[in-house]
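User: quick one
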Amino acid sequence: MQVKEVLLLLTDHWADWEASYAIAEINSTGNYLVKTISVDRYPKISIGGLRAEIDYTVNQYQCFTSLAMLILPGGFSWGEHPYQEIADFVAKVHEASVPIAAICGATVFLAKHGFLDHTKHTGDEFDYFMEELKGQDYKGQTNFVSTQLVADNGYITANETAALEFAREIFHVLEIDTSDEIDAWYDKFKHGMIR
Amino acid sequence: MQVKEVLLLLTDHWADWEASYAIAEINSTGNYLVKTISVDRYPKISIGGLRAEIDYTVNQYQCFTSLAMLILPGGFSWGEHPYQEIADFVAKVHEASVPIAAICGATVFLAKHGFLDHTKHTGDEFDYFMEELKGQDYKGQTNFVSTQLVADNGYITANETAALEFAREIFHVLEIDTSDEIDAWYDKFKHGMIR
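Assistant: Done. Structure below.
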């Protein structure tokens, strides 16, 4: 099997925990390599203060045939910038039929740029920005009910408390293990080791 | 209140998720700054493939009066290296009465260097290395029962599935919020936003 890349798209003040379970398992399989990508090559500082180095920029990346997935963790800057160059990149990735997984603020980013129109992504998972979205009457919904995760039309979306559910869904899409093993991994991390 | 530092000690193949919740909240309070420390200044690559830059080295760090906590995430290299320079640093931090929080492989590291002797840290939380420790008949125990977290004698120890419990205990020790607010944070992230 050809080793494929999984891109983690980092922005300023990216959320440390949201893609942490996902990338650790993906990068351990031997079938995928996790690489970081951003709007430029400057290290991106997490909410927790980590300075993560950047492998690629969105304007230069061309290797869509060896790309297995694009992961967009949340963070404080999604609401502050339009990030049109990231939206252009997301469009290219989706056009190449590569799945895109977004969590927390990144989910709102996808919605604002119209990527989730005509999908099952109703806005229910955008809990973090619920008030903001309520103000905009997003897709006509006024009563938001929280949802941990939605998967449809090549997009996975999840809320900030769903890092484990987000990872589990990503593992199923990337087929990093059997379904039973993936679910056992989830149960272990969701419920802990107390027996 | 003087802003104090919280050190995140990174080793090669540090575990992305284990301290992720903890540092994101700590670094957001305004009362603490999270900084990275390691055996040298070379970026340390996580299990998930992130290259994190390093602020301090253990041999040079002297600012113990402005240090609030040392956090040691787990990772694949704890079992491969003796890391005597890290053990010397942990001893200095403990001598300065600064709390030390270790998870997963870092917990085993502390045990092997004798830091957990004569404490309530029984080895129960070292699930990840259970087999290895069983072989060594650690502290005379042969029947390990998993425990999510132990806090005693200035040390917090937790197993790899206890990132949330690890963060909650750290928040209580650092008093980043009221007890009720900390517990509400834990409930939200443990159980998700489904209502």
